[in-house]
Design a protein that fits this description.
The structure is a homodimer.
Chain A: H1 2-6, E1 8-17, E2 20-29, E3 32-38, E4 41-48, H2 53-63, E5 73-79, E6 84-89, H3 93-99, E7 104-105, H4 118-121, E8 134-135, H5 136-149, H6 151-156, E9 160-166, E10 169-176, H7 179-193, E11 201-204, H8 210-218, E12 223-226, H9 232-241, E13 244-250, E14 253-256, E15 263-264
Parallel strand pairs in A: 3-6, 8-15, 11-12, 12-13
Antiparallel strand pairs in A: 1-2, 3-4, 5-6, 9-10, 9-11, 13-14
Helix pairs in contact in A: 2-7, 8-9
């Protein structure tokens, strides 16, 4: 994949093994700042893996409530060199101002819920799922495919990945040094293509903290599947919001934390 | 460890293995918000593992430049139930105001460099190390001890850990769902005890992104050792700031990315 080549950099590294050392080449994942301007106002700077930056910015803005539908987006202008993206959109000002009054820093990799508080979440409605149920073997299969997609991670060991799936198919896949960024990239791509979320499920390589859960709820995602662990807060929110939360999917094992009625074994 | 018991919660989970499922108990790491008030002004809300919250708050404030020395701290008042910590300190207002004008969201687990930009970093001086050199075997040994400390991670699979070491000894160790929080906890504890950093090294379980590097530089830490991968930006900053950056320390192997002259093999 050409994409991979652009997102890594070669370094000379001293590799030590037992009592020997040698100078070798090593590939390392790139990290760069992306500053988002919304309607000429500087909004935020994200540190991210510098690819699919349009998806990232749109996913971020949509998740945080700055934009509601793709028709509101009038222009997207990206300067990759400078790490600046300028988005022009309708009907955003009031929300943006409101959001700027809150500051929450997340436990998650990536930006997380900077712009909303736990309190807000409880205002989220119950997620109305378009998925009646899913076979446990399908979950194992999806996770297997998902891991085969993660080429960049395998090469550099420094990335999180995320996917949006329908039935047995991975529709969108992306990677980033930040868990949240990876999720925003796939969500942003779906947003731009007008793909609805209520019959999709999300796969993530990383831990599921409250913010990942909230992000899923905002988009109406009813099944979140992770290779990693959830937090207690994520489980409680999932229970309340009607989301099936599955963790530690490894090989032929998994833990279903909430709403297991959607999974047929 | 009693500490561990407080920081996890029991849940009933549906465990699937091959084609069998059963309901079992599972322990899950806690996540909770901590809102920091500095001199009566609400500063930020962190999502974190709710223990050692004094260390976390002080580490955060010191790292972000709100407080410069422990003598400036007049009072620390923690309400664990509500997740609120109030800190009274001298000479903070100007800095706090300045910091509030910037918004950067990080790729890292935890709060990262919300309050400073990459640009600021380049104003960091070269780290003056009190460590002449370290044997490679000592690094392997420290990492081995470090991993044995991580009981909570082993139990729940949802935590990052961090340690401050001198010579062959782990002085401070802590864990959190956020990489940055874990680092701030050990740094905050050292700050409160007046322990200087220039002859210490840092161990971390997580990836080393630019913000972890910058955080280390601000505290004058000259050796950063990780089980995980660095980003290209972290390597470049480490090179420039005179920090020895070591990654992928696993068993008897490691990669030394920068300033390998401090490590004797």
């Amino acid at each position: 994949m050409e994409k991979c080549i652009e997102q890594v950099e070669n370094f000379k590294v001293v590799r030590v093994k037992m009592d020997r050392k040698e100078r070798q080449g090593d590939i390392v994942v790139k990290e760069a700042p992306l500053t988002i301007f919304l309607n000429r106002e500087e909004l935020v700077t994200l540190l991210c893996t510098p690819h699919d930056l349009r998806y990232l910015a749109i996913g971020f803005l949509a998740t945080e409530g700055f934009i509601k539908k793709r028709e509101d987006i009038e222009d997207i202008s990206l300067d990759e060199e400078k790490g600046i993206i300028r988005i022009t959109a309708k009907d955003t000002l009031e929300l943006a101002k409101k959001a700027f009054t809150k500051r929450m820093i997340t436990s998650g990799c990536g930006k997380g819920t900077l712009f909303h508080s736990i309190g807000d979440t409880l205002g989220c409605g119950i997620v109305q799922s378009g998925i009646k149920n899913i076979q446990h073997t399908e979950i194992f299969n999806l996770m297997h495919k998902f891991q085969r997609c993660s080429t960049l991670f395998r090469e550099t060991g420094g990335l999180h990945s995320c996917a949006i799936c329908k039935d047995r198919t991975i529709l969108k896949f992306n990677e980033d040094i930040g868990r949240h960024n990876a999720l925003d990239k796939v969500l942003g791509e779906c947003f731009l293509e007008g793909i609805s979320m209520n019959d999709k499920l999300v796969l993530t390589s990383g831990r599921v903290s409250s913010e990942i859960l909230i992000k899923g709820a905002k988009w109406g995602i009813s099944i979140i599947i992770s290779r990693g662990a959830p937090t207690n807060l994520a489980i409680k929110l999932a229970e309340r919001l009607g989301i099936t939360l599955i963790g530690f999917v490894r090989g032929q094992r998994m833990n279903i934390y909430t709403h297991s009625e959607r999974v047929t074994v």
